[in-house]
Design a protein that fits this description.
Strand content of chain A: under 5%
Shape of chain A: globular
Helix content of chain B: over 70%
Largest sheet of chain A: 2 strands, antiparallel
Radius of gyration of chain B: 22 Å
Helix content of chain A: over 70%
Oligomer: heterodimer
Strand order of the largest sheet of chain B: 1-2
CATH architecture of the largest domain in chain A: Up-down Bundle
Structural class of chain A: mainly alpha
Order of helices and strands of chain A: EHHHHHEHH
Largest sheet of chain B: 2 strands, antiparallel
Strand order of the largest sheet of chain A: 1-2
Number of helices of chain B: 21
CATH superfamily of the largest domain in chain A: NADH-ubiquinone/plastoquinone oxidoreductase chain 6, subunit NuoJ
Distance between the termini of chain A: 59 Å
Largest interface: A-B, 40 and 58 residues
Number of domains of chain A: 3
Distance between the termini of chain B: 16 Å
CATH class of the largest domain in chain A: Mainly Alpha
Number of helices of chain A: 7
Order of helices and strands of chain B: HHHEEHHHHHHHHHHHHHHHHHH
Shape of chain B: globular
Radius of gyration of chain A: 23 Å
Chain lengths: 190, 514
């Protein structure tokens, strides 16, 4: 059963503008702040705003997960990592030289100009709004996601479990502390 | 048939992958179970890894041949995929053999290396078969994640740490951009399934309001360029090549040998599947030429190809480190192979397949020679090759064969590979944009001349320079056998290339529209 989304209401547009600017603003803060803790706090803000965006797109389950997993659990890990490492603030990596900076700004400017242009065009033509159809009425809730995960997307779902296992082992391989080798001396670790 | 039954029925076309999965888990277990001090540790783990690859190959050989989509349209089983699977299994088996006798893998850590290597192979299998945007991204990550870790394999080595970090950052950005592009495609079409996607894109391309068409075109253009970015990063094409020299220099050499052929080939397989069989709105490589979003994509790929080979070759000219030199050379070879994609024809796809097959042997051989030299001298610069022909003639001669083959000189297999790429490109000379195809071929020919210069620098060091000091070069016996076999194969297929042509010809059927 397919039915067509009603066009966005004024409230939807307002919510989108507020949330999207929050994501962008917090994102900018994340990459520009020198202090790691400030950057992390901004990242949490960006995650929460992103969750809000998901909610407006009727993906409520995803919104909840975004807050619980990313803004919650993963950020705690990040903060622990910052606390343990606690390095002196260093000059962040940046484009050096006037030419490179100018080229970067121009390139980014052009890119965003193009994106904005698409949005303006599309609003006029209303192509996107009519071509999006929702497959099921319970779109985005836990039951429908669960049903999809265990039917249509069963294979990627299972493949991810292997990928995660491999990633964990790979992580351990890189981060393993020095341990005695058979010859008795310890492996050097930088 | 219900979806569950469908999933279960698919398993019989999925046995090689299942064998690899079981092998990965088995190796993780064996790595813990076999005692670290045991003298037989490396032998046991190597045999286990080879057995796993062997079982997968046997199951692949007995797989039903018909083309079909599996797991509800997630991955495909078709002759095209089978060809690449053979190539990946071959690369994996040779890498295991090389790594087993290398100094770069201390015995306590070799089990994890084998397991991660096999998971990269599994990821490449999925890359060559994926029929779904979700699967495609997952497959790329499955290739990338273990690769990042293996690049930083040497504990306490600054170059390894740099290699790993650069790889992670570049890889993360590239796959992020690709994912962004995929999200655009999903947003425009409303499906992640490539089969549905091809059909829907066609209907979207049908004339609607003029403004909508224009916006759609730009959105689609941005999306395809972003997807191209993810694939370009995997095959190390300019401008997504920057990670390549540093990773090659810092990572363990046997893995670099694998990295320079395996994931590159998987990237090409993925590119063919995505751009030729689905996004090509007319179906088939020729549809790609007719253009998605009214952009002449073959021209875009052709420009990428020309820039990639030129930049790779020019940067290789003044490299003194053999691994960095081969890194830039592998970038330029990605450029040559891109010519086949730019040709946008069945012949083009076939020429890419032939080239990747030949490139596998010659590049693995070249890296094997570098490993043998580095084991004797302790470093890997061109100066280490000085007088090699007097210290170990077999090593010097085989290395020269690999380098000449990489240049593309007859009567070696590298010539056959390059010949077909040129044929694929030049067969367009009378058609649309024929002048551009001729230009591309001329640029490639000039690049071949440039590449001869730096390959001959190594050969000159080996055969003309006097050896520095009384260093004994004695490669391990297994390496000598492999060097001999590889160069014999290059010579054999350089004069008798029919089997290559027939095999690739038979593998050209791919599952296009369900």
């Amino acid at each position: 059963m397919n039915y067509i989304l009603p066009g966005p209401s004024l409230l939807d547009k307002l919510a989108f503008i507020v949330l999207a600017s929050a994501v962008l603003g917090f994102g900018l803060l994340t990459v520009t702040r020198k202090s790691a803790v400030t950057a992390l706090m901004a990242l949490i803000g960006a995650c929460c705003a992103l969750a809000g965006l998901y909610a407006t797109l009727s993906a409520h389950f995803l919104a909840v997960l975004q807050v619980l997993v990313y803004a919650g659990a993963i950020m705690v890990l990040f903060i622990f990592a910052v606390m343990i490492v606690n390095r002196d603030d260093e000059q962040p990596i940046a484009l050096r030289g006037l030419f490179l900076r100018a080229a970067g700004v121009l390139g980014a400017g052009y890119f965003f100009y193009r994106l904005a242009w698409i949005v303006v065009r599309e609003r006029r033509a209303d192509v996107l709004a009519t071509s999006i159809t929702l497959p099921i009425p319970e779109y985005g809730n836990v039951a429908s996601i669960g049903r999809l995960l265990f039917s249509d997307f069963l294979f990627p779902f299972e493949a991810i479990s292997l990928l995660l296992l491999v990633a964990v082992v790979a992580g351990v391989l890189v981060a393993r502390p020095p341990r005695p080798t058979p010859s008795g001396d310890r492996e050097r670790v930088a | 048939m219900t979806i569950t039954q469908f999933n279960i029925a698919s398993a019989s076309w999925f046995r090689p992958e299942l064998a690899l999965t079981a092998g990965i888990l088995l190796l993780f277990l064996l790595d813990v179970l076999v005692r670290k001090q045991s003298r037989y540790r490396v032998a046991v783990l190597t045999v286990a890894a080879l057995a796993c690859v062997g079982v997968a190959a046997a199951l692949l050989a007995f797989q039903p041949v018909e083309s079909r989509a599996m797991f509800n349209g997630m991955i495909a089983s078709d002759p095209f995929a089978t060809f690449w699977k053979w190539l990946f299994l071959g690369a994996a088996a040779l890498t295991v053999l090389i790594a087993a006798r290398s100094d770069e893998f201390p015995s306590p850590r070799i089990g994890v290396f084998y397991a991660l290597l096999l998971s990269v192979v599994l990821g490449m299998f999925l890359m060559a078969t994926s029929l779904d945007l979700l699967m495609l991204y997952l497959a790329i990550e499955m290739v990338s994640l273990p690769s990042y870790a293996i690049a930083g394999y040497k504990p306490g080595d600054r170059r390894a740490a740099e290699a790993s970090l650069k790889y992670v950052i570049y890889g993360g950005v590239a796959s992020g951009i690709m994912l962004f592009g995929l999200s655009y495609i999903y947003g425009l079409v409303g499906s992640t399934n490539l089969t549905a996607l091809g059909v829907r894109l066609e209907s979207l391309a049908a004339p609607a309001s003029a403004g909508g068409q224009l916006g759609l075109r730009v959105a689609l253009m941005v999306a395809v360029i972003f997807v191209l970015c993810g694939i370009g990063y995997k095959i190390a094409a300019v401008p997504w090549h920057m990670w390549c020299p540093d990773v090659y220099e810092g990572a363990p050499t046997p893995f670099v040998a694998f990295l320079s052929v395996g994931p590159k080939a998987a990237g090409f397989a993925l590119a063919v599947r995505v751009f030729y069989s689905f996004l090509a709105s007319g179906g088939g490589p020729e549809g790609f030429a007719r253009g998605l979003a009214d952009v002449p994509w073959p021209a875009v790929v052709g420009v990428l190809s020309a820039v990639t080979m030129t930049l790779g070759n020019l940067s290789a000219l003044h490299q003194n480190n053999l691994k960095r030199l081969l890194a830039y050379s592998s970038i330029s070879h990605a450029g040559y192979a891109l010519m086949g994609l730019a040709a946008a024809s069945q012949l083009g796809v076939q020429s890419v397949m032939i080239y990747m097959l030949v490139y596998l042997v010659m590049n693995l051989g070249a890296f094997l020679a570098v490993i043998a030299i580095a084991q004797a001298t302790g470093s890997e610069t061109i100066a280490d090759c000085n007088g090699l022909s007097r210290r170990h003639p077999l090593l010097a001669v085989t290395f020269a064969v690999f380098l000449f083959s990489l240049t593309g000189l007859p009567p070696l297999a590298g010539f056959v590979g390059k010949w077909y790429l040129f044929v694929a490109v030049l067969s367009h000379y009378a058609g649309d944009g024929g002048a551009w195809y001729v230009t591309l071929a001329v640029i490639a020919a000039l690049n071949t001349a440039i590449s001869l210069y730096y390959y001959v620098r190594i050969i000159r060091a080996m055969f003309i320079e006097a050896p520095a000091g009384e260093l004994v070069v004695r490669p391990r016996v297994s390496y000598q056998i492999m060097l001999g076999t590889f160069s014999a194969a290059l010579l054999l297929f350089g004069v008798w290339w029919n089997p290559l042509i027939e095999w690739t010809q038979a593998s050209l059927t791919f599952l296009t529209r369900g």
